Structures
1.
Amino acid sequence: MADSKNNSNQVPDTGHVWDGIRELDNPCPRWWLNSLYLSGLIVVVYFILYPSLPLVNDSTKGLLGWTQIKEFKEDLAKVEAVRAPFENKLAEMSVEDILANQEMLNYAIGSSKVLFGENCAACHGTGGAPAESAGYPNLTDDDWLFGGEINEIMMSIAKGRSGTMPAHQNLLTTEEVDLLVQFVVDSSNGVENSAGLALYNAKGCVACHGADAKGVKAMGSANLTDKIWRFSGDEDQIRHTILHGVNDASDKETRVALMPQWSEKMAVIMEAIAYAIEDDEDPNDIDWDDELTGDEAERLTETEIKKLAVYVHQFGGGQ
Ligand code: HEC
Ligand code: HEC
């Protein structure tokens, strides 16, 4: 029980004794108490200045009017301010000019990574190289269905693309398919196969893949004489493409090869300019009210498509 007489240091005790050990009643250290009071004060000040107390649909606002979204927007505005001069300049430049200007090229490439990641990587893979089994074209090899020149790439993105190889399972005998598979394999190895070539011509493959079987850009047909495959160089896979084609609605096993359209408006504009040049007319004379209805879909802006075309062009395959 309480026994201050035996307390050698004359510290008052609490009167509690456990197993002969007495609980003294020392005051808390000053520094400790001060920190305790200070932290209480900080809580009060924070409470007054910042949003703190949750209400039913909201919270108290605080005197500073700080919000997370406001801070984010301020940071974003700083980033945009840095980007704005580049973005404005890009909007005015042609893709050829961008390619020739190292500073703008660096900016376009740097700022396209996220754009590509968000819109393209799901099919074409991060950095433009999808897994082969995914069935999407690799954009980093030097092999193009529709062409690797900057304007061709831009057109692929703006307009979208879709493969046109028909299914041949009802048009060819098994022996003919075997011979054509062998012809494709031989062609990719640089081996001549004259019986195969005759059949290739007779069955109309030549109309799309060309007399040299190297593919025709305007048709987006694959080059059959190299070792870079749109799908795969396995004989089974080659046979599958010949039998079932691509995007052939009449064949359940057909391959799907659809590239979405990103700006119908830009595709219409690019095509109109290309036709005018082909016909020896001045593109400045084009009557855009005639060409454009105003309802053309735009999933990406013109500047974004230019940036992406430049980005894809520098993957290593650009021509
Ligand atoms: C839904 C999947 C998908 C998405 C998303 C997609 N693509 Fe494609 N892309 C394809 C397919 C499939 C083809 C090949 C079409 C064909 O086989 O005829 C293709 C073809 C292309 C080509 C032409 C390649 C060649 O060899 O000529 C380019 C360039 C291209 N895509 C760039 C892009 C860019 C840039 C984006 C993002 C804005 C994008 N793609 C988004 C599926 C996609
Ligand atoms: C109407 C045009 C057309 C005809 C006819 C055609 N092809 Fe194709 N072929 C294509 C296109 C376009 C592609 C590219 C598929 C795509 O868009 O991804 C292709 C792809 C292929 C491929 C895949 C190559 C690869 O790299 O993976 C093979 C093999 C092939 N064709 C063989 C043939 C043979 C053999 C014939 C004749 C029996 C033939 N094609 C007839 C348009 C055609």
Note: The longest helix spans residues 68-92.
2.
Amino acid sequence: MTVVDANDRHHYQPGYLFIPFGRYAPERVEKSRRAHLADGVRFIEAEIGRVNPAERSVELIDGRSLGYDWLIIASGTRPVPEQTPGLTDPRIWYAGSPAPDQASAFDFYTLDGAVALRDAMDRFEGGRLLVHVSEMPIKCPVAPLEFAFLAEDFFRKRRIRHKVDITYVTPLDGAFTKPVASKALGGLLDDRSVRLAADFAVERVDPERKHLVAYDGRALPFDLLVTVPINMGQQFVIDSGLGDDMGFIPVDKQTLRAEADDRILVIGDASNVPTSKAGSVAHFQVDHFAENFQSAVRGEPLRSLFDGHANCFVETGRGKGLLLDFNYETEPLTGVFPYPGVGPMKLLGESRLNHLGKLAFEQIYWRMLLPGRHLPVPTLMSIRGKRLPAETS
Ligand SMILES: Cc1cc2nc3c(=O)[nH]c(=O)nc-3n(C[C@H](O)[C@H](O)[C@H](O)COP(=O)(O)OP(=O)(O)OC[C@H]3O[C@@H](n4cnc5c(N)ncnc54)[C@H](O)[C@@H]3O)c2cc1C
């Protein structure tokens, strides 16, 4: 078994969210990849240039070629700010800016972006803050909402909340993709006096006037823009002819086998499965993968079917959090998670325990998930003990 990755630095990406608020130091989210691999797994630190399914080989940028019998692609997604005209203009964009302390447009989906944004948040003394999602899908679609909630709390604690006008700008018709969750999260934005600019299909950024401009002509001025740039699959996926328009790999959504080639399986954000791109999803997928992979090698049908299960902790600020649990077919429900009737996590409602759960998850991630230890949480979504909010009223 050989793992190929462009670098040895494994990032706990959920930690990026806390860096701009000074809650996590950047070093806390980074560890050696090699050190987490089991004995007997070969690690090659190199960038993949192309996959050649016909010859069953992977070409590395440094010229080496690796043959394979089976290929598992888990190359994730990447933010591509250059896709939005004007966004990376050096007058506003933090990266490559000649005067970084005057930059006004940032992302927090990269470690560098989160660190630069921390400094900008500290400098910010008031004005218009836009928290913006460029286009769906993005990984962790709740993260920008969490950023808006935490920013509200951050400015409140700095006693300048009254000087900051926060607007959440999204291409969706509400706060989130799923109608039930969208209503709950939209209500929380309202409670925190965060404006919502929905159906905002961004056309460009005007760096001169500092405006975010939509195709329908709306222009939102900003003093600080926190954007989630367009997310795409990796370039090697596109160059290998394995991806769709956005570079995501079409797969059978239950078996995760690539449509283009039986010898390729895809895990995590790199595929086009119609559920959230999230670490929790990658984790649940892997439980199915182990059994399916053995069946595939034996030439048998893949029988362990993935249901699209996603589980997202949403930081809502003020020491609370909310938990969403859904799959391909079922909207987020109220009730408790992970054990029916027992919980202890409350679904679709704010609680202190959900916030503590999100914080505790960091240690579970490093100590249990990454080394591959079993986590006693059901892989498939269960609806036992759960109800749609309409049924509860
Ligand atoms: C701010 C933020 C907050 C988040 N919060 C949560 C959360 O609370 N809960 C949750 O479940 N998820 C969360 N996520 C999402 C989660 O981090 C991702 O869904 C998860 O990391 C996806 O795993 P992956 O293995 O598919 O891709 P990744 O973890 O992105 O890994 C992809 C790997 O592929 C490598 N790679 C890419 N291209 C090449 C190449 N050409 N050659 C060699 N190697 C390559 C990269 O170096 C990388 O190591 C968050 C993400 C962000 C950005």
Note: The helical segments are 111-123, 143-157, 179-191, 235-239, 279-298, 352-369, 389-392.
